[in-house]
Amino acid sequence: MIIETFGITKVFKALVAVDHINLSVEEGEIFGLLGPNGAGKTTLLSMLATILKPTEGTAKVNGYDIIHQPAKVRKSIGMVFQAPSSDELLTGWENLYLHAMMYGVPSNVRRSRIDEVLELVDLKDRAKDLVKTYSGGMRRRLELARGLLHKPKILFLDEPTLGLDPQTRSHIWDYIRRLSKEEGVTVLITTHYMEEADALCDRVAIIDHGKIRALDSPANLKMKVGKSMIRAKVKNPNVEKIKSLPYVSKVEAKDGDVTIILSEVGAHIQEVLCNLGEASFVELRDPTLNDVFLQLTGRGIREESAESWEEKLIQVRTNG
Amino acid sequence: MGELSGLYALWYREVKVFLRERSRIISSIVNPIIWLVAFGGGLGSTISFGGADYQTFIFPGVLMLTVLFTSIFFGLYIVWDKRMDFFKEVMVAPLSRLTLFTGKMMGGCTDSLLQGSFLIIIGLFFNIKYTPYSLALVILFLLFLSAATTSLGLAIGAQLSSFEGFGLIQSFVIMPLFFLSGALYPLENLPEWLLVVTRVNPLTYIVDGMRGALLGLNHFPIWMDIGVGLVFMVTMILAGTLSFMRMH
Ligand SMILES: Nc1ncnc2c1ncn2[C@@H]1O[C@H](COP(=O)(O)OP(=O)(O)O)[C@@H](O)[C@H]1O
Ligand SMILES: [Mg+2]
Question: Pick from A43, A151, A265, B198: CA 20 to 30 A from residue A103's CA?
Answer without folding.
Answer: A43
